[in-house]
Design a protein that fits this description.
The protein contains 13 helices and no strands. The chain is mainly alpha-helical. It has one domain (about 1-295). Helix 1 (about 1-35) packs across helix 4 (about 95-105), helix 7 runs antiparallel to helix 9 and helix 10 (about 195-215) packs antiparallel against helix 11. About 30% of the residues are buried.
Length: about 300
Amino acid sequence: MPHLHHAALGLCRTVFLTSILIFTALVYLRGWLSLRSTFVKASSAWRPVSFLLGLFLIWVAIASPMAALDHELLTVHMLQHLLLMTLAPPLIWLGAPERSMVHSLPQRFVESLLVPLWQSRGGRTLGKLLGRPRFAWLAACATLIGWHIPTLFELGMSSPAWHLFEHTSFLVTGLLFWWPVVQPPDGGFRQDLSIILYLFFATLPCDILSGLLVFSDRVVYPMYLSSSHLLGFSPLVDQQCAAALMWTCVTVVYFVAGAVLTMRLLSPNGLPQVGSLQSKRNAGPPRVAQVLEAH
């Protein structure tokens, strides 16, 4: 009976999370379709594909059958973190969701709640803070390192509530981290040399953590000692595979993003003016402000 009760709770959580993601996708598509004739050019048809792919990766991480295996394999657990923090967030931002999501909401709700909230002193202060690369970098690194401390790792795996909170923190800080990279009004990549350094230094915590797990001669997280050893992995091999996966994935994704930024900087129109860069740094998340104030 306890196993049936646990399975029922897991099924309810899966249905609930899947429903939220489907609802988010429908709200985005409703706004995008209504704006397509006036704001979105035909060449921008890839944006909803990017956004929906990002949502799909979130679903794979938290609600798919694979997600149920994270208590059995550290490799699966690490894959969840990579999907939520490294792969899904840039796809979400490349979908330029702000205008579509805001336009899809009831106008009365936007005008009576969102606009006043954004225009308030606290809203603008929070927006500037969340839009600062240093804050986003520190938040992402603290989340990555913090949840992999053995004590906090065990806490995150101890209950569904803590596990969901852990996943939420990875997704939120992942979105914050990628915002300074994918932030221009056209939904492309930011053209700023400092962001290339931002991406480079963000690989260092991942490299250190991966190195510690790969070269450790003992299992760092004891809970996997009693796992069912799926795929024939021993706990130590599983730990090494998880670390190698993080090391490789983060390096490749950040390298690709850095290469795109470098090519844009080296293009004839890729060198932005100092004044425009300074105004962007001081403005906080620009697309959100523009969408709310123009709605």
